């Protein structure tokens, strides 16, 4: 009678082990399929046209970016979305910084993080000169 009990325990243990092995095998087979269906198609770039040329030191604000004009036609655009929680940044003319109104993260006009809970620099966007209908301006690629 005692031998029969240990036999049942051994059989139960082996059956549970076999179930775990099968479950692991199924997961290894299904994982690539799940990964395939969660494939993310990258968004198409969005182009924003600004129909004027900025003077040196001038700033143009869009809801998604800030466009800065430096010396010698040096123009760049940085995201206005804080890298901490996504709040829209405001520009302080007094401090010459982009500041998050939510948690006070601070960034330079070139998007470099200075302080705050944000850990990453701001995203930079490509800016190109354009001429349309005889008027010059910029195209910002988001």
What would a concise description of this structure say?
This protein is of the alpha+beta class and 142 residues long. The protein is 25% helix and 31% strand.
Give me the CATH fold name of the largest domain: Rieske Iron-sulfur Protein
Spatial order of strands in the largest sheet: 1-10-9-4-3-2
Question: Architecture of the largest domain, according to CATH?
Answer: 3-layer Sandwich
| Fourth-tier CATH superfamily name of the largest domain | Rieske [2Fe-2S] iron-sulphur domain
| SS field, number of helical segments | 1
Look at the helices and sheets and give the structural class. Answer: alpha+beta
* Text of the CATH class of the largest domain: Mainly Beta
Assembly annotation: single chain
Distance between the termini: 77 Å
Using DSSP, what is the number of strands? 10
Question: Can you walk through the features of this model?
Answer:
With 142 residues, the protein is α+β, with helices and mostly antiparallel strands. It is built from one helix and ten strands; from the N terminus they run H-E-E-E-E-E-E-E-E-E-E. A hairpin with a 3-residue loop joins strand 2 (59-61) and strand 3 (65-69). The longest helix is centred in the first third of the chain and has 36 residues, at 2-37. The protein starts with a helix and ends with a strand.
